[in-house]
Amino acid sequence: MESDLLISGAGPAGLCLARALRGSGLRITLIEQQPLAAIEQPAFDGREIALTQHSAELLRQLDLWHRLGSANVAPLKDALVLDGGPGPGQGRMRISHTLSPRTELGHLVANHHIRRAAFEAALAEADGSGEPPTLRCGEQVTQVRTDADGAQVTLASGATLRARLLVAADSRHSATRRAMGIAADLHDYGRTMLVCNMTHEQPHHETAWEWFDHGQTLALLPMNPCPASGQPRSSVVLTLPHQELQALLDMPEPDFNIAMTQRFHGQLGALRLVSSRHAYPLVGVWARRLVAQRFAAVGDAAVGMHPVTAHGFNLGLRSIDTLARLLRQAHGQGRDLADPALLQTYERSHQRASRGLYLATHALATLYTREEAPARLLRQTLLGFGERFTPFKRAVAASLTGLQ
Length: 404
Hints:
404 residues; 20 strands; D-Amino Acid Oxidase, Chain A, domain 2
C-alpha cells in the first residue's frame, strides 16, 4: 500500500484528522482539489464559528489553539434568543454563562483562521509530532473503489492511489461519499444566509443573538472590537428566501448599512459594513451510513447541520476525535485499520452523538421559519417556558459549552 490512510478533502475536517494521527506511525495522504495557496492562506469567507469549550480543548490537543492568535478569538459569554418584533409582545430567553461552570459559554473564531491554523498544525515540519502527511493539491477524485484488500482512488490526472482506509472529509455534498454509493437525506430549507462583519454603536456585551423576527431570521455573533475604529463589532447573519437576499448582496454599501440597521430595528444603533458580503444556501445533510468497506465519513461529509444551533464544526471535531482514537488504538494493536467492527463502533458512536442534535436542530429551524399564526403562538409559548424553567436553560448552556 502507498498509504495507510487516504483523506479526501483538506478542509478543516481533513486537516484536523491528519493532525490527530501525527506521530501514530500511519502513512497519510491528503487529496484536495483546491490549489495549495487556497488552503495554505485561506481567504475570508464571512463565517464565524462558535466553538464549544469541549471543541476548544480538542483544538488545544491538536496544537491548533495557539496558532489561531488571541486577537482572532472572541469570548462568547451569553446567548439571547428572541422571537417576533421589538416591543412588549417579543419573546425572550437568555442563556447565561452563570448556568455553566465556565466564565463563558464558548468562543468565536473566523472560519478562515481555523482553516489556516489546521493547515499549519497538520503540515508543520519537524515539530516532534511525527512525519507530516503527504499533500496532493489541485487534484480531483474521479473514481473510488474498495475491496477486501484496500481502497483505491483515481484522480483526474489519471494517477491511482491505494490505501488501507479511505476517509471522506470533502463537505456535506461529498463526492467521495456519493461515489461509495452512500445515500444522504438532504433538506433544503429554501433560505439563504448573508454573512458579513459590521460595527455598531451599542455594545454586544459578548452575547450572541438568534432573532426569529417576522419574515426574517437575524443572528449576531460578538467579535472583538474593530481594530480600525475600536467600535463594537459582530458577525451579522441575515436569513431570507434567496430572491429577497440578492438585492442586499448587490446594494451599495451606504444603502446596505441603512437597510441592516433597519432590519435590526435600530437596537444596536447604526450598523456599518467592515468586510465583504457572502451568501450560503441553507441545506441540512444526514448521511444514511457513515462507513462502508474500507471507508468512513467525518465532518460535514457525515453530518451537515443547519447553523441555527452552531453545532456543525463542533460535531465534526467529535467525529474526528472518535475516529482518530479508534485508528490509533487499532494500529497500536496491529489490527486492520478498516476492521468492520472498528468502523461500526465509530458509526454507532457518532450517530448517537449527532442524531438527537440533528433532529432537534431541524425541528427548531423549521418551526422558527414558519409564519402561520399557530407556529408563531407555539414558538412564543416554548420560548416563554424556556425562559422561566431554569433546568431547561441549564441544559441548553451545557449543550452550548459541549461539557454535558
